[in-house]
Amino acid sequence: MTHTPATRLRFISRLTKKLTTQSVLIVGLFALLATSPLFARKVSAQSIVCAITSPTSHRGTAIYEIGKTWTGTRVFPGSAVTPQGELVVAYYDESRYLTIAALNLHTGSVCRRHLPSRFGGWDAHNTVSVAVSQDGVLHVTGNHHNSPLFYASGKSDNLSAIAVADMVGKEEDRVTYPTFLRDRTGRLAFLYRNGSSGAGTWYVNRWAGTKWVRVGAVFAEKDSIAQTSAYPSAFVADSQGITHVAVVWRRSPDLSSNFAISYVQTSDFQSWRGLSGAFKRGPVSPESGDVIDQPGPHSGLLNSAQLYLTPEGRPLILYLRYGEAGTDSLYLAYANNEAWQVLELASSKRRTLAVGGGTVSGLPVFSVAQSNWYLHVKLRFPPDEVRQFGIDLRSMTLSDTSVAARESQGASVPLPELPKGMAAPIHVRHPVLSSGFDGAVVGHLHWFAQTPNRDQSLPCTPAAPHACAPPPATLRFATPGINGWR
Q1: C-beta neighbour count of 293 within 10 angstroms
Q2: How far apart are CA 195 and CA 171, in angstroms?
Q3: Residue-range domain boundaries for the chain
């Protein structure tokens, strides 16, 4: 139902009786906007709650409050910019309900709506993904780890129209790693694994305008030796519409069974190849494409590989494994003509035991920010402090850290003090891409959360009395400006 300005004002009037004098001033501003043509959102009073948020400013960065979010474990939200220029964020609120929030940066209005899915609270696999297809349809999926597919969609300019639906209606009962992609023609695609680690199949679907259709299986369940399971990096598309991906392969649910990393590219998610040669029909196996490194099991190879492209489209891959000295090391593999060069970039004096299932904590981690020909890398080998360095993509050598940091710096946001009584809380910074999964970085989401605990709940202890029921965090969106937003 579309509410007229008059009905919106009556609704606001009822609310003001319950608010403080200070809040009435804010609601009064909302009332003025409600009668304006700029405030044209179709709102369902029963399921959608709207409010006005006034951004703060810090060193040229505008910071908006999206809502309160659950902090039991670090789990990533989904986000995208709609054709109308609004930011849509899908996240777990403080009560763990999957929530859609739409932020209008021009008016400051934030509208939120629960979806019928509630997070258990502790499994870091249960990320949320958001995309907007070419026809303006918003697609939301999440809250999965070997569980039935949750998917909802509807026109991006009407939160009340977002409805739960099936995709293709089969092989959707044990979903993990939902990911939106785009093929060479710009059509939206959806990748996910159905089944458990070591015993699952990766599928890709394509949005056909009014429904999803199955394209086929992407990664093979077996190679010439035994059963295998794929752990792909993020899929990265170049300017020609070719999609590149690095894949870590393992034999069983145990992390220690990771044995190889390979590279493939595709234009349609059906035929694949390495850097050169003919495209061959999938599914992709460890023997397809280019084998980058094959250290074997118990080699410390982690399934956290990240793939990037230079401005001219040359792929490079960063990944972690035990190095020449048998300790934790970060490797760089980069395309050199039609061959791969592999370098050991950094190493630790220690060797972390990479073994077990679930989200294993205490492992080496790294993050990368790219700007043009520079990568700014933050790397931590436990228990050492974070080290930072740059990579010059022209020469594939380490660069001046200050240059890389300056080239890749994002919006500056003051970090709130972390609450006391939580178990290893961290500040989280997550990029917002214009289409949800690719396109320009328009800002970052910021919040705090506890570090993952092998997907298990955390007990309250004398040292961390709030770990089992942590306080919510404010989910904030920081952007250097709204230039280019519609």
Answers
A1: 19
A2: 9
A3: 41-479
For 409, the token pair is 């710096």
Residue 33 has pLDDT above 70, yes or no: no
Q: What are phi and psi of 423, to 5 degrees?
A: -100, 105
CA distances (Å), origin 27, targets 46, 73, 111: 18, 34, 14
Name the fold adopted by 41-479: Methylamine Dehydrogenase; Chain H (2.130.10)
408-441 pLDDT tens trace: 455 468 888 899 999 999 999 999 999 888 888 8
Burial class (CB in 10 A: 0-12, 13-18, 19+), 484: exposed
Specify which residues 128 forms β-bridges with.
142
Q: Which of the pair, 87 or 47, is modelled with greater confidence?
A: 87
Q: How confident is the model at residue 296 (pLDDT cuts 50, 70, 90)?
A: very high
Within 302-355, strands assigned E span: 306-309, 315-322, 328-336, 339-347
- With tokens 């919006």, the residue in question is 411
Greater pLDDT, 24 or 133: 133
pLDDT tens digits along 450-479? 998 888 999 999 999 999 999 999 999 999
d(CA 195, CA 221) in angstroms, rounded, equals 11
Q: At 178, list the tokens.
A: 């939902």
Q: How far is CA 35 from the centre of its chain?
A: 37
Tokens of 335: 């395309």
Which tokens hold the place of 282?
A: 């999938």
- 3-state SS, residue 263: strand
User: How many residues in total does the chain contain?
Assistant: 486
Task: Report the distance separating Cα 440 and Cα 159, nearest Å.
Answer: 24
Alpha-carbon distances, residue 345 vs 145, 331, 348, 448 (angstroms) = 33, 5, 11, 30
Kindly state the helix (H) or strand (E) to which residue 411 belongs, with its residue range: none
pLDDT band at 24; cut points 50, 70, 90: very low
Helix or strand (DSSP H, E) at 449:
strand 441-450
Name the DSSP class of 325: T
Spatial neighbors of 25 by CB under 8 A, at least 6 apart, are none
The alpha helices in 359-457, defined as continuous H runs, are 401-408
Task: Put residue 21 in one of left, alpha, beta given phi > 0 → left and psi -120 to 50 → alpha.
Answer: alpha
Secondary structure of 209-229 in HEC code, one letter for each residue: CCCEEEEEECECCECCCCECE
205-218 pLDDT, tens digit each: 999 988 999 999 99
Residue 249: strand, helix, or coil? strand
